[in-house]
Write a structure and sequence with these properties.
The chain is of the alpha/beta class. It contains 14 helices and 16 strands. The strands form four sheets. It has a six-stranded parallel sheet with strand order 10-9-8-14-15-16, sandwiched between helices. Strands 5-4-1-6-7 form a five-stranded parallel sheet, sandwiched between helices. A three-stranded antiparallel sheet has the order 12-11-13. 49% of the residues are buried.
Length: 408
């Protein structure tokens, strides 16, 4: 992970292609056509967290005298221009945050865009239109990557959240622009996750939640080989409970993963890795039910489903964090977006914050829960990534990281 950083570049008078993650939620009616247009002002950025995260690298490039070509995707426009996914509202919000004009190009490649980038002066910024308006972006097409590369002299990637995608603006472009360096956000993500994988202070405890075990089974398999304990909650816990022979009512279970879950539990036992599973759950007929109660996992009613960890499990999980020196957490303990099923996730977030351990929390829902608990400032590192966060912890090579230039 010893990659060159944007601080290693002499940016004065250079054009830098800065790949960022501006994939933010939008609110309001979409404009009638894609591209920059005055009426797009009605559509606004609903959450600018990712824009804020991109600012330090962007401001560094501007202050260093670079002309900055910003590039990002937004949503899933299926390889063609779609007004719902125009970056026009993002450009407007970036102008407010940066305190200077951020014009939006009508496209991300082509003669007109190349002319715009050549006319940029030091410290000026141009935002390219949605990269995914071209199918070649997700296909990692080398010709499309070459067209992007012609816009700049050097390349920086600050979009760790997209680093697990071998897309043209992430991987193929680095074959044409060198050096390819990490932005500040990318560097912080790699340092925080590297601290967990390469040199964790022990005991190291992992907390995993979320709905489906299939999304995280590979991660669980790897973690039981690396951590001292893993605490499993959320919907995914019920597949493990079923693997142990428990009845789980109408709770979410993936039948085709039960045998794999049983194998993982056996491997953890052989290695001496502690695995914490719920001993009770808050159950109801559905997430919309106004009535709920906590029951032991041995007494799960057949007609109800588990929607949060129960108070005994919360107490056990909290106790399991005492003495931990490093904690990594991904996935809520229940349907925390419903207040009656939020206690397990919110209280566990407070326990992580109070543990004194170096903690890394990743994934949109989990980060949102930490903010909801009011303890975000007490977490060691909040990762902006979801899929990339999980794949990195699984030990996979991320194309967007591997493509960056190694530090000599």
């Amino acid at each position: 992970m010893a990659k060159l950083s944007v601080e290693d570049l002499d940016l004065g008078g250079k054009r830098i292609f800065l790949r960022v993650d501006l994939n933010v939620p939008l609110a309001g009616p979409p404009p009638e056509a894609a591209g920059p247009q005055p009426e797009a002002g009605e559509r606004q950025v609903a959450d600018d967290t990712r824009l804020q995260a991109a600012l330090p690298t962007l401001q560094h490039c501007v202050k260093s005298g670079a002309a900055v070509i910003l590039a990002s995707h937004l949503g899933r426009p299926k390889g063609k221009p779609d007004p719902k996914y125009s970056l026009a509202p993002v450009a407007k919000r970036l102008e407010e945050l940066l305190g200077q004009p951020v014009p939006l190009a009508a496209d991300c490649v082509g003669d007109a865009v190349e002319a715009q980038t050549r006319s940029l002066g030091p410290g000026q910024v141009l935002l390219l239109e949605n990269l995914r308006f071209h199918p070649e972006e997700e296909a990692n097409d080398p010709v499309f990557a070459g067209a992007l590369a012609r816009l700049a002299d050097c390349y920086a990637n600050d979009a760790f959240a997209a680093a697990h995608r071998a897309h043209a603006s992430i991987e193929a472009i680095t074959r044409y622009l060198s050096p390819a360096v990490a932005g500040f956000l990318m560097r912080r993500e790699l340092e925080a996750l590297g601290r967990i994988l390469d040199r964790p202070e022990r005991p190291l405890v992992a907390i995993l939640g979320g709905a489906k075990v299939s999304d995280k089974l590979a991660l669980v398999e790897r973690l039981v080989q690396q951590v001292d304990a893993v605490l499993i909650g959320g919907g995914m816990a019920f597949t493990f409970l079923r693997a142990l022979g428990h009845g789980v009512g109408r709770s979410l279970v993936e039948p085709d993963r039960i045998e794999l879950a049983r194998r993982v539990l056996g491997e953890a036992s052989r290695r001496g890795t502690q695995v914490g599973l719920p001993v009770d759950a808050v159950v109801a007929e559905s997430p919309d039910d106004v009535e709920s109660r906590a029951v032991g996992v041995r007494e799960m009613p057949e007609d109800l489903m588990g929607l949060d960890i129960g108070p005994l499990t919360l107490a056990r999980f909290t106790a399991g964090l005492r003495g931990a020196k490093t904690i990594v957490w991904n996935g809520p303990m229940g349907v925390f977006e419903r207040s009656r099923f939020a206690r397990g996730t919110v209280e566990l977030a407070r326990a992580v914050a109070a543990s004194g351990a170096f903690s890394v929390v990743g994934g949109g829902d989990t980060v949102a829960a930490v903010h909801q608990a009011g303890v975000a400032e007490k977490i060691g590192y909040l990762s902006t990534a979801g899929g990339a966060f999980l794949e990195f912890l699984e030990g996979r090579v991320l194309p967007g990281v591997a493509a960056l230039t190694d530090r000599p």
